[in-house]
Known about the structure:
Helix content is 36%, strand content 23%. The protein contains 14 helices and 21 strands. It has a six-stranded parallel sheet, with helices on both faces.
Amino acid sequence: MEKVYIESYGCQMNFADSEVVGAILTGAGHSIVTDIDEASFILINTCAIRDNAEQRVRHRVRELRAMQGRRHALRIGILGCMAERLQNRLMAEEDNLSLVCGPDAYRRLPQLIEQVRCGKQAAEVELSTTETYADIEPVRLGSNGISAFISIMRGCQNYCSYCVVPYTRGRERSRDPLTIVAEARSLFDQGYHEVTLLGQNVNSYKWTDDTGFPELMDMVAAINPQLRVRFATSHPKDLSDKLLEVMASHPNICRCIHLPVQSGSNRMLQLMNRKYTVEWYLDRVDAIRRYMPDCSITTDVIAGFSSETLEDHQATLDLFRRVRYDYAYMFKYSEREGTYASRHLPDDIADDEKTRRLNEIIALQGEIALENNKSEIGKEYEVLVEGESHRSKEQLFGRNSQNKVIVFDRRDAQPGTYCKVKVRNCTAATLLGELV
């Protein structure tokens, strides 16, 4: 059978999907290898959210031609969002590809690989309205044995005007909560101490009228107080007080909410079809801080969307100063073929101006993050230790409930355990502390 090496790009959902792929392939008798030189088949799980992500994958596929030149039996396949978006065009444009498989067709991978072994190219990109892979126990690829991802839903139907995800992952469908709880409990029994519930918009999760995302969070958090629970990503329009009440009632639900804003201008938000206003967003921020004053808030933002004026850009900077995010993913607008924006809204901001605005946001966020971290000096946190610091084997790192990385001298602490750490210093990205 094939020895399969899986490379993953993009969001946490893609990495979780790769673990589902690993389970499907091992169940069919193939083996997953961690050394690319051992592989007879390389599968690249892709992201299509920005053009830069796709160009990175194309560059990687062309890099692998040299390896195929040395090993003629080596085959390469593309999975995920880029496969769904470009479909058969990929194999026409990249002649060393043998397989293309969209995110709802992973159960077909053993059959597709068999087609390739018979000398054919293979493609399957049909989207599903029901597939959630709920019955598949993922293979934890490259796991640290401490933290794991659990996909609770698939797809998106918000149709933000700039976003390709509804076209590459299909409509929203939620997974049976009993299977989610069972997977989380199994992970805890295996020694994992943290799970992150994943979805394009987790707080729109709905199984029945009585079981939505707050109820699911309550069930997962109740498994054991020693199991930390995180989630990503929230859409501001669906962030309810009920969810905040559940979070506040469980100390093991981490005090960190990723709340993508995308712009601080109501005009931009309307063009983006975000379905909320700045005023609504700030009300949700105020609610978070009312229920959990110690909760960190992170965000996504786009610089240079269609027709963005300097006033719109300034409104985004003002929002950053008001909310004071602990972290932000900041990007300049990248038009994606097939979206509403690509058909109806011109990409009319010059690239150098997009870059200038982006750099201004990045600089401001760096200042805010450093100020926020300085305010942590002297505080004590419970830290879940994840491993050795990259800079020194004499130091460990972990994260607190607010998802902030803390580095400290290891002494007798061990990865996979909780310990108390007092913050002594910081950078804009990291807290520096000592064991209490």
